Amino acid sequence: MLTLSFSVKLLHRNPLPTKQPRHFRTLIRSSFSTMNHDTSEHVVGPWYSVPELRLRDHRFTVPLDYSQSQSHKISVFAREAVSVGKENQDMPYLLYLQGGPGFESPRPTEASGWLSKACEEHRVILLDQRGTGLSTPLMTSSMLQMKSAQELVDYLKYFRADNIVNDAEFIRKHLVPKEGPWKVLGQSFGGFCGVTYLSFAPNGLKEVYLTGGIPPIGDGCTAEAVYKACIGPIITQNEKYYKRYPQDMEIIRDVVNHLQESEGGGVPLPSGGILTPRGLQLLGLTGLGSSTGFERLHYLFERVWDPVIVPGAKKQISYYFLNSFERWLSFDTNPLYALMHESIYCQGAASRWAAHRVRAEHEHKLDAVKAAKEGRPVYLTGEMVFPWMFDEIHALKPFKEAANLLAEKEDWPPLYNKTALNKNTVPVAAAVYYEDMFVNFNLATETAAEIAGIRLWVTNEYMHSGLRDGAGHVLDHLMGLLNGKKPLF
Description:
This protein is an alpha/beta fold. About 40% of the residues lie in helices and about 15% in strands. The protein has 22 helices and 15 strands.
């Protein structure tokens, strides 16, 4: 396989004056110009340790809606990490924004990987984005407190990148000495948030690092364009998988046929949902797009069937496989991902179940039952959320009506400002993965052309999970692009 790796610096040809949308200008100015440092808004915990790291917890009380002075309050959690012995040293702050949407920041168990590299020179702030982890988590149980689907939608609309950035600014002004700027590292959806940050609050930024996280920034809803662009890479990853594990082609066809012939078109899952052929295809979400996904997927299918220990017993899918299937998808612990996923692409327009519509256009390739009957490879799907998931996945069933309302919602506020990005002066370095199944290479480079001064590192050495898999190399490379260690040309 050809291994490519090169760096590019993009300069916007005609920087224009920045004019932020009224919505965001009002939000940023009114919310933060009057901010004080009342300790009731910020509670700091004691230092504690994991191997080679010192950690402490920060809890902030922030507005649900920053545009309302009397807004309901929520709690946002962030964990500070430094190398042992550096607790009192004056070091720059680096905010880490996790991928998602709807996933909490990593829980450090030791100094390793990118975090170890970052802590060499920084105070790292691991933010649980609102609605995740310890930041007023929106779990299946907590969301059931809402009295109606519309009430839930009216609450969830405040859990996108715009308000994640507002939380970050709130935290920065409480943490960073003299309210100075800080650095941001955004992975995947965290990178989308980083571009929102560049659009609306660049004065809070010293440097930005993006890893597999350059979003499409077109007007309206770009979800349909995203899914259309990703179909080709999804098919390619399936073909690579079957080339590596040709024996799995027959196994997966047998599983699809078994599910289709079962009563109700599927088999019960341990949680109470149902595993259907189209549900089985969701394993591609984590199985096809990360560095060890192929191997994990193969070993999962190795144990798909129960052994026949009693002569004449019926063939059945093992509990091990069914339980593993649910743990792979994480919808029971992170339902916000399914509810909010398509909305991350929306600005003033509805998604209207874009992935579902795009899949229908390619059903001749993606129909699992037909492929199994015809002896063709069954293709797994990628990062797509479908309306039928709210019928088949137990944890999502209570939110079917809310999901449909979110899919039809049109009045989403802006997430990006092209004019501001064209005039960007914040140093930005981005890792763009050539074979990224989640963030399309072509769409990412289109957006990069709109961010003045951005430096790109284009590589196929890593998949979408390169930051996690690269043992500090990806972050070190990006830092080198901005600190002079990597030549400009």
